Amino acid sequence: MWYMFRTKATKGVACLLVLSMMTGCGLNPFDQGGNGEPREAMLYESTGEGEETEVIETAKVVRGTFEDPGFQNGELVYLDKESATLDADNAIFLEHKVTLGQEVKKGDVITTYYVDYDAVNLVEHKAAAESAEESFRATLNSKRADIAEQENRIRLMPNGSEKEIAKARLGKTRLDLEQFQKTEKTVKETRKRYEDFLKETEQSKVRAPVSGYIVELDTETIEGDLVNAGTQMAAISQKKDFIITIPNEGGLGGINLRYNMEVSIGLGKSMNELDTRIRGRIISAPNFLEKSTTPDLYIEPIDPPADANWDSTIFVEFQRLKMDDVLLVPYDAVSVEQDSYLVENNKYFVTLLKDGIKRKRYIVSDRSNSDYYRVVDGLDEGDEVVVN
Description:
- This protein is of the alpha+beta class.
- It has helices at residues 119-156, 161-181, 184-200; strands at residues 2-10, 40-44, 51-60, 62-78, 82-86, 91-96, 103-104, 109-115, 204-207, 212-217, 226-227, 231-237, 242-246, 262-270, 273-282, 297-301, 313-330, 334-337, 347-354, 357-368, 372-377, 384-386.
- It folds into 4 domains: 2-63 and 324-386, Beta Barrel (conserved putative lor/sdh protein from methanococcus maripaludis s2 fold); 69-76 and 240-322, Elongation Factor Tu (Ef-tu), domain 3, CATH 2.40.30; 80-117 and 201-237, CATH 2.40.50.100; 119-199.
- Helices cover 20% and strands 41% of the residues.
- The strands form 4 sheets. Strands 4-13-16-15-14-17 form a 6-stranded antiparallel barrel.
């Protein structure tokens, strides 16, 4: 809690002491700093002459819990997504027929393209199909004619061992025909390859494999680009199964995050304009101290409302650090003497108010948040400081 403190000061009589000036003007023999400089110096003291009242806002140094909250932007990762891929060789991209976030139905056109084919290759495909079909038909007719001739010959033969041998030979020929007819599948596959190749020479389409929403869309490919077979053009999800990820690009280094730790998920335009707050928990427990080798952070929402707008910006809030039973001084009570070269050499100080006297007091602090500095050395619990 901050307080209002009233003291009396004399206009023009206050004697300003700077630590680096060792003159006889009110040098206060308090604790010395680590570099031999005095830690504290009197800023002014009332003389009682020509007095006027000065209003000073003060606060107490307290012992309490230091918390360092933070937030990172999150991204949705859908676990129920299906890929819409372009599977043709030598495909030339034309355009997407959908946009990111659009709802589609199974079979809807996602992307159009055409195939840059070699005319010689097309002729070869056609020749192979026709040759396979012609060869199959000729062999099939020949085997059928052979069977018909054997059947006629057997009918004219008298009963006896010679006729039985002919029947056995006929059975073998029929079995051979049955096995040969199975090769028709290969002939049809050759024809289908040719027909597919022929279709690919015309404008072709990538279609949605399932109904849902476009959650990923290839935006790097432009009209006229050659696309490799198997390239994903889009990903479709029903948006029912997802988690949140925070890409670890160095901003999470040194943060004490752990598996199953609860976090707060905010949805809205900014941290100050959130439409929805949702509980979440960390479902991965990486070591965030090694920035170069860490994976991303994954978070699972807990009982999200059905009407949550996941298309808005996602903010994940968490406690980066929590320290109990430490000395705290209000953030607005601390001033900084900036070093010209190194931030590590900056000096922190407060204005200590004691017995109606304001003194400059250097402190040691290793961390701060928006409300407090944590005091390592230089102040005691209950000390009263001026709030800037």
